[in-house]
Amino acid sequence: MTDRVAQQTGFADFVHGERAFVSRVHLQPQSAGLMIEMPDGSALLWPWAEVRRLPDQADPSNLVLGRSDNKLARLYLRDAALIAEVQAHASQLKKRDNMVPLSKLLVWAGGAVASVVTIIFVLVPLMAAQLAEILPPEGEKALGDATFEQIRTALDETGFTGTPICDDPAGNAAMQAMYQRLNPASDLPYGVQIHVLDHDMVNAFALPGGRIVFFRGLIDQAETAEEVAAVLAHEIGHVVHRDPTRDALRSAGSLGVLGLLFGDFAGGTITLFLANQLVNASYSQAAEATADAYAHALLDKADISPSSLGTMFERLRAEYGDAEGIIAHFMSHPQMGARIAASQAAVSTTRDYGSILSGLEWAALQAVCTPETGAATQPDDAIKKSWP
Question: pTM value?
Answer without folding.
Answer: 0.60
